[in-house]
Write the structure tokens for this entry.
Amino acid sequence: MNLKSHLIFTLYTIHGILLKGASGQHPLVQNMTVTEGATANLTCRVEYNDNTSLQWSNPAQQTLFFGDKKALRDNRIELVRASWSELTISISDVTLSDEGMYTCSLFTMPVRTAKAYLTVLGVPEKPEIDGMTKPALEGDHITLTCMTQGSKPAADLRWFRNEKEIKGVKEVNASGKTFTVRSSLQMYVDRNDDGVAYTCKVDHVALTQTPQQATEVLEVHYAPRVEIIQPLAVPQEGQYLKMECVSKGNPSPDPVLWTKDGGELPDLERMIVEGRELTFTSLNKTDNGTYRCEASNHLGTSIAEYVLYVYDDPTTLPPSTTPPLHPIPPDPTAQLGSRASEPTVTGNRDPNAVGQRGTDHALIGGVVAVVVFVTLCLIIVLGRYLARHKGTYLTNEAKGADDAPDADTAIINAEGNHAHAEEKKEYFI
């Protein structure tokens, strides 16, 4: 290699080293996102550094650290690591005012810089529910409002009725760097809303674990409604019977009032009232009548009536010797005991609709039909018997009187006819 070639090779080598150094001395940073009140770490790195210092500056272009030297008196800002290739600092208890563009500078000729944007998320405050009237009256129109402040970006509010989500009307207002969010829920309340929990939940990117929420339980006052329940489908004499007056109202209509046929209960020894229950220790026919249960609160009064019909004791009839023309269905009341509790009877009831009375009528009709049939058979047999023995029967005197001039002669003639009696015998079978 001659001298000229050697010089060219040397120049290219120096140029390559300079290019490599220039590219390796560019600072590298990353944008950061933190939640308000948390700690932000800002890191600046270089691949190659020829003893040149690194520096961090805030959005106001104030120097925070120059190398390992602190330049700004802020106790929240601390040095994490300082070397020729890295400068990392931390900002604790970050506020919204810390948000902005931070600059890392490498003091080469010329100075090289890199910028990192610090985003601070505003944490929404716990929501509050307004407009919950306690107590509300059935039919009232109410408006529930849920509000949260301090969110950045704007939070989202969601309504739940117990566990089911319902839709509200959302409103967002800016307040400096943060937002105030409201959501309204309008409704007409009824008795089905009594005791229902209405919950407002806040959804936000800063709430990574548990969402903020508020819950209010709605109390609704409403007039009572009553109904009478008794367990026996076929009340019979001698049985034990309990009737219950079920009343629903808020405030609770306690106690209830029991009456019979518009007046007081007639026999308090057998008719025992305990709270909402009316108990008959032993039923009899005098208990037939209309029983009324009445419940009241400050919003109104409700009345329920029940018609009680007490049936006779079931009796067993002797078996019939005449087979029925049609099969007789089994009596559904035959398996009912004195405490049958399967059917639930409420309100007014027609006692004639019960199957026991229909069964008694069928049995009586069957007996009458058998008696009529037997009577007709006897009449027919007697008539045939009389028809076969119909004729004129004469005495012996009458038989000889046709040819005799007087009674003595008739007698003699009659006696004379005894000889021919064998010829005139009639045999009756």
